[in-house]
Amino acid sequence: MLANPVFRIDLADYPADRSTYDFTELDRQMRWALQTLPAGANVRLIVHKYKPSGELGWMRADLIVQVEATDPTVIAEWMLALSPDAAAA
Fold this sequence. Notes:
The structure is a single chain. By secondary structure, this protein is of the alpha/beta class. The protein is 30% helix and 20% strand. It has three helices and three strands. It has a three-stranded parallel sheet. The chain is globular and about 35 Å long.
């Protein structure tokens, strides 16, 4: 039995152009997909160089999120955007 399921989200799968991702399509698909994950599941968010854009209402607080990026400052921006304080603001 798999104790910690991992769901992979790669922003490169949602290109809008060379410098950003399609926030609308990502939001639409993730609102549907993430609702099926059990609480405590791991989400591997591969952001490359993309910075957070728009609200992250599709991300659930009961999931364990790992952010993978090519730049430490991008990781910091995503962690800030995903923090519970950011969700309350």
